[in-house]
Design goal:
Elements: E1 3-11, E2 14-22, H1 32-70, H2 75-93, H3 108-123, H4 131-168
Antiparallel strand pairs: 1-2
Helix pairs in contact: 1-2, 1-3, 1-4, 2-4, 3-4
């Protein structure tokens, strides 16, 4: 956004500051209010992409760890692992029974991909966002909130319970901070 700014650099215990001015490209004819709306939507999209990408990466990592653990565990524990993997799959990709319906159930992976695509579209031009872009964000943000809530519930209950079972069996617990070996496309492309 055009305006006056101050930059601060700290290195080797010393701080340096410099003032500078950002001017609008004179070829851009969008009003200041239109640019402000674009900036606000871009910031909301960036935040939503960050949150959704982090959740997608966590969920994929958990699924990868579950697959590795399933090969080393008892039949009873494998049943718990399969149930949790199915639940995570439903959060990531939507329930299996909603594929092909006119309005599929919210899915974390789809929300993440839609937010990334919308962010690229909004930042691509110095114009006020269209009503369709604003409506798409509102709809997708609602779907994201629903799926993030479900993901949080899975982490707090189902995953915690499974980790208790794994620990009791002498197996390593599933960790949320591990990353998948090869991330799938779509997650955190920004």
């Amino acid at each position: 956004m055009p305006g006056q700014y101050t930059a601060r650099l700290t290195a080797n215990g010393r701080s340096y500051t410099a003032n500078f001015v950002v001017k609008m490209d004179p070829r851009v004819k969008t009003s200041a209010e239109g640019r402000r709306k674009q900036f606000d939507l871009e910031m909301q999209l960036a935040s939503a992409v960050t949150r959704s990408s982090e959740a997608v990466l966590q969920a994929r990592s958990v699924r990868e760890q579950l697959k590795k653990t399933a090969g080393n565990s008892s039949d009873a524990l494998n049943g718990s692992i399969k149930r949790l993997d199915d639940e995570i799959s439903a959060v990531l990709d939507g329930p299996k029974d909603s594929a092909g319906s006119a309005s599929p159930a919210p899915a974390l992976g789809r929300a993440n991909s839609n937010l990334i695509a919308l962010h690229k579209q909004v930042e691509n031009a110095d114009v006020e966002p269209t009503s369709a872009q604003s409506e798409a964000f509102t709809k997708t943000a609602g779907e994201l909130a629903t799926t993030l809530k479900r993901w949080q519930e899975l982490k707090n209950t189902d995953l915690a319970a499974l980790n208790g079972q794994l620990k009791a069996s002498g197996l390593p617990e599933v960790r949320l901070d591990l990353r998948t070996e090869a991330p799938e496309s779509g997650a955190n492309e920004e």
